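Internal ticket #5521
Category: modeling
Description: The requester needs a full-assembly model to guide mutagenesis choices. All entity lines are attached below as received. Residue total reported by intake: 500.
Assigned to: D.W.
Attached entities:
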Amino acid sequence: MAYRWKTDLTERDVTPEGAWLTRRGLMAGIAGAGIATLAGRGRAAEALEPNTWEEITTYNNFYEFGTDKTDPARHAGAMTIAPWSVRIDGLVDRPADYALEDILSRMTIEERIYRFRCVEAWSRVVPWNGFELADLLEMAGVQSGARYVAFETYLNRDEMPGVRFPVLDWPYVEGLRLDEAMHPLTIMATGIYGRDLPKQNGAPLRLVVPWKYGFKSIKSVVRITLTAEQPPTSWNKANPREYGFYSNVNPEVDHPRWSQATERRIGAGLFARREPTQMFNGYAEEVAGLYEGMDLTKFY
Amino acid sequence: MPLGPAINGAARRVPVWAVWIAGLAPAAWLFWQAATGGLGVEPVEALEHRLGELALQLLIAGLAVTPLRRHLGVNLMRFRRALGLLAFTYVCLHLAVWLLLDVQTLARVWEDVLKRPYITVGMAGFLLLIPLAVTSNDWSVRRLGSRWRRLHRLSYLAAVLGGLHFLLLAKGFQLEPLLYAGAILGLLALRLRLPRRQAA
């Protein structure tokens, strides 16, 4: 079901101040709570000025193409992305290799302007195009025993110079709890700024989970498996002390090697101040409920 | 023609100030690039990392001078002080960028030094270099006599800490920090063998 999350407003969408004041005058005393929500959305939207195309596509982590931030933009061109299919298997009613065209013909593509926060403490705002992961999972038919979703990135040793060295245990794998995967904020992105997703950003299809550190948003997905058990995830396998399964953005839980309290906004320049990091990357209102009663310092 | 004398002949014609200019040029270029967009969309990280890498490269160059002379007969001793001081300069620039442009808050700098091993190790390496830079002048060499040589063996430890600093901050299992650590340990190992040979 597309369009379940509707707060992806931009500055253009913010009600002009004059009209808003009039409306506030009219509605005062009728729906005070509603007004507060509107105002809150307006403020949040104003801060969400997307980064430029260049800022989004020239500074990437996609270790299959090298560990330097500029390596993906330089080397990802070699990746074959057509034809592309996604194997959806495990605890689903209709396991199959789904051709990308078939998936796209059945999904509703919408724009989602999200904050993106890397575990390395940099951030940016990306205007994604994509569809809700929940729609894709429902297409395959999630069985009642499924509790987790495992993802896998494309792997081709001839096309990916970075996999010659075992920086990580290839292929790259990630995972979500089923309720996280079904959350309306969780999307599979197919584009940025209305253009096809660049290869360095995870073409042709990648996960985007905006309240988690960027490495959870696995790129160039070739396989999605519904499981009963928590699946292994690449960074957790590489260093479990530093990277947990959940990896929710949390300014109060530091990475052992650096603070997560603040972040550097990409494109802000050489002399920009660091900005405070928000709980769940600013999506606490939407997702905090998923983790109620959990000790987030333990389940980091 | 043996390689050693050929290089020595060419090196004799290179004035030390030329090494200084060649050594400082990358720093000027990097700051210019960072300020004008040449280092990409996240210039702070790029600048910090490049300065740190250059510092390590210069430390390695300084450590290479003695083994080159002893094993290959290549004498670059004239440039060793410049290489050491250039390395120290780059460590200072690296630290300044980290402090002023990256972390920005003094309290957090201190917290990082105490809490994060790779920063503790890097900072220890920096502190070890300070007495070496201070005593790098002719007057100190004369005054300290044989103690000067012993004191300047701290550069071995400083280089090891620098290499360890790089190893500890890498994400995942990466090749580049291993190459630096290998070069540093290799150059130190060449020194260890020598006393035994002389004794024999």
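Resolution: model delivered.
Comment from assignee: The two ends of chain B are 31 Å apart (CA to CA).
Ticket closed.
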